[in-house]
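Notes taken during the Thursday session

The instructor put the following on the board and asked us to keep it in front of us for the whole hour. The protein is 8-amino-7-oxononanoate synthase. We were told not to look anything up and to reason only from what is written here. First, the residues (380 in total):
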Amino acid sequence: MSTDRTFTTWLDDVEDQRRAAGLRRELRPRAPGNALIDLASNDYLGLVRHPEVLHGAMTALRRWGAGATGSRLVTGSTTEHELLETELAEFVGAEAGLVFSSGYTANLGAVTALSGAGSLIVSDAGSHASLVDACRLSRARVAVAPHADLDFVRSALATRTEERALVVTDSVFSADGDLAPLVDLHRVCRDHGAFLVVDEAHGVGVRGAGGRGLVHEVGLAGEPDIVVTATLSKSLASQGGAVLASEKVRAHLVDAARTFIFDTGLAPAAVGAARAALAVLRREPHRAESVLDRARDLARFTGAGAPESAVVSVILGDPQRAVDAAAACREQGLHVGCFRPPSVPEGTSRLRLTARATLDADELARIEAVLTDVLAGASA
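Then, after some discussion, the predicted structure tokens were revealed:
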């Protein structure tokens, strides 16, 4: 048998296995003017079509052109990038900021540049895939802590032989929407000379005063041994990521973060959109609380527990059951997320609902009716 045929056969076998397990994924392109009520995206503040955000993108596009034209260290930095870094850092209470092309590359860059061979990383089992991949690429020894297990983290740090250590975690975990015990984690890190890296992708815009994030909410903003990463593609309705930390950390990342050095800079239009979205949030801080209010509505409709973030999970168990429920919602005009392994552990496939600050009374009534009908069918 030829090598080509062997590889093709392997691909066929893998696809068959995924189909049998209910794990086959499909792309579903959106059309302009999609009539579905959106409970699947991460547009938590409802800013992705806000006139000021669109104007910010268009102004930057006209001023700087369609692309960044190069890496940040060559031609890819503009004054727009620097303004966004300053504004984001000030908003979350950090000393400095550095913008990357995505939240994924921000996590890869921060974790790999701050660790390396001869160091230890302790990562929460619920951390986002970008943090998981950063750990794998870091060349550090990695210890995966059971979810929110402070005793494990403490023991791993106390018994390490490595001089340097990082603890990495989401602030708001993307699948369940629960919160990391940041105050206790930071105390453990400080007791053992470790840095704490916190991914605020789902925290900024939702938690904290005016959406400043969970790190700010619990009083840890600006601590020199905390590194915050964030995305611009959720509450800030754009694209890109950022690391928000001390000036010393920023300078190190400029020299050492490979996803910063070797990646093309974030497109100017995305930078302009994010700056405009941040300006709207600063002017209208009530949007952050509105997200949590709408999440409470979604939890009430589904019988889920009280939410701590914009995320409401409805666990159905079987992957195909979750796929069928999501399809039934779509047929009735409601777009919901569907999480299956490997995004979530085996046996916990679910509908993932994300709240949006701008959901109105008519939409909420429709959402309640659809979810009541679909979940009744899913449990039958």
